[in-house]
Amino acid sequence: MSEQCRGGPIAVGSLPSPIAIAFVCYGVVLSEIAAAQPSDDVSSEVKPDVIVEGVRPTDAGPMPGLLLNQDQIPGNVQSLGKREIAESRALSVGELMNEKMQGVSINDYSGNPFQMDVNYRGFTASPQTGTPQGLSVFFDGIRVNEPFGDVVNWDLIPMNAIERLDVFPGSNPLFGLNTLGGALSVRTRSGFSSHGIEASGLTGSFSRQQGQLTVGANNGVLGGFAALNFFEEDGWRDHSPSQVRQFFGRADWRGRLGVITASALLADNDLIGNGLIPSELYDERRESVFTSPDETQNRLRQFALSGAYDVSEALNITAQVYRRSSDRDALHGDAYEGFDDFSFDHDAVADLTQPGRFLARNGAVQTRLVGGITSGSGVVDGTPIGLMTPTTLSQTTYGGAVQANWNLPSHKFMVGVSIDRNRAAYRMVQRLALIDASHRVYLDPSNVAPQYYAAANDVPGNDFRGTGTTRSAYFSETWSMLPSLHLTLAGRYNRTGVDSDLLVRAALDDLHELRTGSAIIDQLVNDQTRTKESFDYSSFNPQVGINWLPVPSINLYGNVSRGARVPSVVELGCAFDDTLVDIPFGNLTSRAPRSLVSPGCSLPTTLSGDPHLPQIRSDSAEAGARGTLGRRFQWNASVFRTDLQDDIYFVGVGDGKSYFDTVGKTRRQGFEVGVAGEVGMLELRLAYSYTQATFQSTFYTVSPHNSSADFNQNSQASTNLPELGAFNSLPSPTASANGGRGTYRMIRIDPGARLPGIPEHNYNGTLTLNLTPAWKIGLEATAHSSSYVRGNENNLHEPGGTDQETGLYFCSLGGGCATTGLEQTFVRRGRPFTNEGRTEGFIVFDLDTSYRIGERLVLFARISNLFDEDYFSAGRLGVNPFSPAVNGAIGPSGWNYNSSEWQNSTYVGPGAPRGIWFGFTYESR
């Protein structure tokens, strides 16, 4: 044993010296054990453990080198190979997982096949900023969760470059931060695993065109592989074209003692996903959109260099360095939610009798005139009803890792260190706009009333820059105590530092309140508040697992583990700050939490500098069994549970503002069963999962379109109404609830409420009939049960009643309440609730057939949504301004200028209708 292991100083990264000594010395002991054995014995004993007939060894973590077969992994790891992936015809990893893997469902909030939320066991990997992320995703060992929000851009992963996809369940510490519910590991093809040329083409419905090409070759020492993917379609909904261009290239050198690999991943994609749509508009016309455009341009440049060195037959060392740079430019056209607050032209002349000088922009708002009260249908001409928001986001991540792996007869031991550093820059501006008859939002200042400054000028929202660094050390040991009994012990230590520099517009004025000609307009628009923040987090996450084979055909397993997720940059930037600050109003001074008097968060367009949030901690457990039935069938069954502490959610805090805040505990638990095999000409695969995802703590969130919300304006905290003074209003009993923030327009979530977007029952299955050696037909079914929509987190929304508000009671500052009594603000009349707060369950069938001509050419046809099922995979509660009018004025776009006639609605994410495609694949080996 080395002198250092007998007491010399050793330090690995930022780990304490004793931990480093334990890791390194244990590895040295194993290495000396291996060296003491005759090489023939090592060879004869190692190979059966590494290569088992019918069982493919699996890399135990993001880095390769430690090889375990399935019977040595204490969890329900699901895997798909390149042949299964190619035959699925899936456009993205999300679509593939939804069709082929247990415990998976999708939410299509964006309306684009490359931008879906992927839910696995109740945890989500999503491209949408602001969605709570709980899955880590790796591409050849490189984490592809972006630093800004931990989002995953599925369009940046080319499907034809994948050698295999593994899904690891639970809080596996080897995959690092954000592995709360699971990890996805993608391994790419090489010139050694993929020889020759493969080409495929597809055409059909929605003007979809796709071409793919791969080329691979090697001479025994050098190998090269390249994959190209080009995709474009018009989309089945209005204004929904998309284009995807992906390239992956890889070069490998294999020597007698090692391997060196260099790779490049490039992408240049234009995606349009026009999002959710009010159910009323969907019923009128399936293809319509609520507003457009919603365009995202993703650009990626990723380069990596990795290597493996075989010190001996039992010991290898792997290392990797990488640089990943992505740019995201987005343009969002939305309805202007501030329209509901429109009243009249605040800059009108004092003589209100002059025609045209007192203009009601919203017919729901009564206007007080000299001598009486009148109300109108609202003025259409010159009223901005749209909002245009361009954003830019640049992100760069780079880092490296070194790992040593001992593959011994009775021990599989790994130890490694890694460092990852990222930086991000985000900027957004906003403009008031108009909406045309096709619901396209457009800029046209000449046709907007000139007093609206924001119609002709960009108004900055925020300018953000931030960096983050994570240093980690990890280990894993699988001890085969008996040939049929394996014990696993693993752990990872993480230390993360986050630094950010935030600039946000200081003024509180809404866009329609910024008036041309104002003496302080430059100050209102351009004055920004700067906040610099630094946070540090650390965690040690362990795992213990066991595998037992009572008979060769049955494997029983179980594990417990702990994970962590550090709050992302966007969550820290939008964290609620309850520090009280003074608010002057004339001669009065009130106090309110800082977040209530700063610009609110309206993702992805608004950020504000706010305080520390604790990291999320997960405790996970799983137990299960898997095995074979005869030689033709495989089965599995497992139960699981993961509890989160200090979970983070996008919540409401009052005054129409929302932030990220810690909401306490959440839980995901359930079970999975599956079977796959073949009988004669039939191949069968069935998978079912039950997932119960619930909140476990009480908290409040803004949800103004939920029938159970508090519609009493007096439920606001008095500090939220400084102009009235703390003693000049009549607060309701709940005005001091919710941590003193009030409950106006909020709902209360209690333990046991189900998380939105997560169906309890999920099923997928495939039945394949091999009619001849060349011709086969496959029928695939995917089914999900009902789920609650966003905005219905308390699960209490239901049809019936209205959103009639109770006006604010106040005492005029100029009068005496003892003699005049309290006054009450005017409120529009209530709007009825007619929709459910959930999406219904559904089942979708796909039909696929292929015919092989010779050894190289295959022709195929695919029909998706065979029976043209109407279904929704996502939803949220909202209000529809494109509604019929009785007293209101309807503009050219269909917009009702009387917001009291708007329809409370459930916005839905519709599934695509029936689609038919034809294509071919060609292989030259």
Automatic annotation (TrEMBL):
Taxonomy, superkingdom: Bacteria
Question: Which positions fall inside the TonB-dependent receptor plug domain?
Answer: 71-183
Where does this one sit in the cell?
A: Cell outer membrane
Residues forming the TonB-dependent receptor-like beta-barrel domain are 296-866
Q: What InterPro entries does the annotation carry?
A: Beta-barrel_TonB, Beta-barrel_TonB_sf, Plug_dom, Plug_dom_sf, TonB-dep_rcpt-like
**How is this protein situated with respect to the membrane?**
Multi-pass membrane protein
Q: Which UniProt keywords apply?
A: Cell outer membrane, Membrane, Receptor, TonB box, Transmembrane, Transmembrane beta strand, Transport
Keyword Ribonucleoprotein tagged: no
What Pfam families does the record tag this protein with? Plug, TonB_dep_Rec_b-barrel
Family note: Belongs to the TonB-dependent receptor family.
Protein name (database record)? TonB-dependent receptor
State the organism of origin: Steroidobacter flavus
